[in-house]
Amino acid sequence: MTVRVLLADDQPLVRAGLRVLIADHPDLEVVGEASTGVEAVHLTREVGPDVVVMDIRMPVMDGIAATRMIVEGGSAARVVMLTTFDDDDNVYGALRAGASGFLVKDMALEDILGAVRVVAAGDGLIAPSVTRRLIAEFAGRPTAAAPAARPGALAGITEREREVLTLVGQGLSNTEIAARLVISVATAKTHVARLFTKLDARDRVHLVIMAYEMGLVTPSP
């Protein structure tokens, strides 16, 4: 299955570099390019990409505002924020807007493409330079407008799913969860998939946020 990608960045050279690199990978396809947040929102509605690689700093409308409009508009597209900045406010703003990934431009281009694949598969991804602590602090902020779980959501999940959600909140991968709970990786994936459905979570990043909001994991000091 080919992952359809929309590139949104006000720097033509950045878009060109990603476009050329993506052309060498048959599982990825560029279906549109935008130089402003407004164009990104319009093209997302028009061409229906699977993943939007979105720069934060753009004219007319920034990437965070554009991401919020895309998510609130009901698009199935997942957004990967791409920026030269990795400060806390941008991370919080991007996640709050509904982004599924946050990457910095000094990453290798191949790593950026790997992130696109991860996000397209339904997982969330945060650049290594943006530590788990930042997600914990974001989730622990009382003003964070993260996608909230439905009232009584914990009552609707099994004890095993609760254990899995806790480990997801701690940043463990499916393989690590399987090892911790002594279950198969396939079973761990099934539990995570059920959590997506029961908690109405867009991706793994939002499961992490919900785990903190529900008090299953305590933000790091």
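The above is record 1. Record 2 follows with the same two-line structure.
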Amino acid sequence: MDLKHHSVKLNDGHFIPALGFGTYSPAEVPKRKAEEATKIGIDVGFRHIDSAYAYNCEEEVGRAIRSKIADGTVKREDIFYTSKLWVTFLRPELAQSALEISLKKLQLDYVDLYLIHYPTALKPGEEMIPEDEHGKVIFDTVDFCATWEVLEKCKDDGLAKSIGVSNFNHKQLEMILNKPGLKYKPVCNQVECHPYLNQSKLLDFCKSKDIVLIAYGALGTQRDKRWVDQSSPVLLNDPVLGALAKKYNQSPALIALRYQIQRGVVVLAMSFTEREIKENIQVFDFQLTSEDMKVIDGLNRNVRYLPASFLVSHPNYPFSEEY
């Protein structure tokens, strides 16, 4: 499967494969699974690997990538690797060191894309989510536009080929876009996006600014008990997706992924199962009619599986805005 032809051009001239392989896993999944799954992903044709410092699996994912380079399956330049700046490193003096920590874990010289994970700074330190003695999350006050300048420097220094953001609303994106002395626009905004939360307004806004929308949770997330309300509807059980899956002789997951591809959204798919990993890459083998695209548009009900409730009272909490 040659994914070269299924890429989207970024506003800095680089290309991002339209289908990406997600590496986040719930705590109960052993980290070695991330390594095994990434190897399978590369073997079946995935070239876009999405990870993050906060996923706590960059050593394993880096090992998988390097082993596939070593055995001749791919060259480094064939792989598009994304990492993310965690919120405890948003202070400008910490941001570059965070990227260097990721590169050291990966044992790679550069990442292809580096994102600010959330616009909400937390207190720096060892803890991923720092809390006070009452169990209250400790916020930090950082101007993410100053953090952005450090990412621009990381791009200039060759540590990251492209830079972007994740979980930003349109107003927060505008703050960066309108920043005096802006050198590089964000190439993308990676957000939760699926038929129950289709982000059509944010997508239109991003398109108008030549920013690519990248969809995570495109299959309704892995329903990690720590973050996802277990009473929320299961996306892939939706009868409309089920009917379309029958019509096209595909799985509901492939219908949900194909929907994003046809909207010009770069989509991430996550699985630890070889059968599903092989299936997900078949998203380019069929096409939905414009009528069926409209039917899927009609499923939108603003269900956000990952509201990041630990950040909800942060002044920069992104999801109180409509888009």
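The two ends are 35 Å apart (CA to CA).
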